[in-house]
Amino acid sequence: MTERSPSSSAESNRSTAPLFALLRGAIAAGLGLGSLTVLVLALWICSPDPDSSPGGALHTAAGLWLLAHGAELIRTDTLSGVPAPVGLVPLLLAVVPVWLVHRAVRDALADEERPVSSTAVTFLMVVGGYLLVGAAVVVYARGGGALSVRPMSLLLPSAVVVTGAAAAGVWTAAGRPVGPPPSWAPVRLHEALARDRFGERVRTACRSAAAGTAALLGGGALLVAVALIRHAESAQQSFARLSDDGAGQVSVLLLALVLVPNAAVWAAAYGLGPGFALGTASTVTPLAFSGSPALPAFPLLAAVPAEGPGTAPNWAAGAVPVAAGVTIAWFTVRRAAPAHAAREEAWSLRETALTAALGAVGCGVGAAALAAASGGPLGTRTLAEFGPVWWMTGAAALAWAMLVGVPGALLLRTWRLREHDEGEDGAGEQPAWEQRERQDQQDQQEVDGEGRRWWPWRGRRGDDGAAGAEPSVPDAVSVAAPAPAPKPNAGVGAGGAGGAAAVSAPAPAPASAASARVPGPAVAPGPGEDEADGFEPYDFLPTDPWHERTARPGEGGPSGNP
After folding, report:
1. Per residue in 375-434, pLDDT tens?
2. Which residue from 63, 346, 401, 526 puts its CA 20 to 30 A from 122's CA?
3. Which residues sit opposite 467 in a β-bridge?
């Protein structure tokens, strides 16, 4: 057997990289379709009296998978016999294909075991592999079964879902950069991107927009939960009316779960003001529930408020957009005026307001996109329109975020800088002993500037206690050459009536430190002068660190004596 050279192996691996990317896209589509098919087949098996064959169950699974991509299905088994469109997409079900495509592109570009093709080739191959499986499912779902698909309704939604998720995977694999604009962009945009803070502002605006949109969804979900608790009896009755066997009840429960995000978006639109439609002849807003609603029996629809004008509990839903605006302001000020940063590092008022406004725009765009994805037809005539109007929901979200988020960001910035200034003022206050110690250090620095003193001088005091003049003895003597070292054990004795004091005079500094300052000669007082004039014999003992070193055990003094 012969071994292949490393170059040929690398070239072959590089040539097969697009095929692996294509396979990743196909596997991502197969995982989503397979998981949904297993779930539908399990429910069909558990059903005591299934209405269709296994082929019908497979057609239902294929239709639901296409519905998750935004396709419009046609329901043929209606009571009137007229086919009815179903275009309301369960948002929780749509999360599965988005996540699978995103992960497939990200892993294909971040694969370290195999050579990776260019970003564009990898992107196209993953998307192509996913769409190949999708095309096969569309062909299968067109014929037979209770649910069929309109192929033309799948073009735009699937392109947005698959292409957008794949583009997000490319961006994630690249480290989520804020890249340079295209060449045809204005010069001012290029100059703004060249600045250091532009990328930080963009990231802050994106975070605040995402946080504001999440606050809207969370507030809507809270409204739905409170309404369901208040109307728990009606929800239970509708749940029991739809099915009486275990498999049917599980199916209704799963359908209600995947529609919970849709209900949260509808409730958020309700809190924003535009509300949502329950058919072509009815609109639900906090001010009023007007028209003739087309309410099918479903547990989540039990959360719809009662017909008639709105009351105080209905108006309380306005707290949801207020919370979203406060969230945008908070996430903006977290970067504009950090808690432990200096005042000079904080953003200006204009930068803070502009970033909060960009976050409000992003929140409006996100709310409009979610409103457009959460609604759709459930039939013909009065059931042809369900859910919020996307452009009205987006405009209301933008208005609320602007009115609450921008002023809130400015107020929070002012408050944070005020707290920072108060913290600095409080940090400047020191205890009395620290102030005395600092004052002593300053006095010592002033003395050192005039000339170092080797000992504290107390001076002479008269009978009245006033300080006398300093003696004419100099504090220090500058020498150019060292004096001869004294003989060992030689001392200077001073005798008097008050007692004798014998001290050893230290030698001056060595020749290498000719400019050092050494203490002047000690003058011994005459008999009786120390007591009469307040003289203390130990006042003239030197305290330089050099003498401290000579006093250590095992070290000699200037004369070499231990």
Report:
1. 988 888 888 889 999 999 999 999 999 999 999 999 999 988 886 665 555 544 444 545
2. 63
3. 461
